[in-house]
Amino acid sequence: MKIPADGKLLRIFIGEQDKWHGVPLYEAIVNLARKEQLAGATVLKGCMGFGAKSHMHTAKILRLSEDLPMIIEIVDSEEKIAAFMPHLDEMVSEGLITLEKVNVILYRANSLSK
Known about the structure:
two-stranded antiparallel sheet, single chain, alpha+beta, 114 residues, 2 helices, 22% helix, four-stranded antiparallel sheet, 34% strand
């Protein structure tokens, strides 16, 4: 799979406890991205953050949150990201979605991997 040098970075900010049909939302989004043959997706778990409601979510020992911030990053062509966006509109009921221009320098897999 080839990504154009001028790609797009889709970044989705949601909560760890957000669900889609009983499945963690971050997992549902990554599985759908794979099914739609996007170039790849990465999920990052935040240790602290707050959103539109200004409710603090933190992983500190004394105040252990059960809803830490989750960030899903997907890089692909503008066309493939645009085609994926309607799915997110349906799936993400609370959160933040951003889109940025990126310059893809390198995207390849080990030729020995299956």
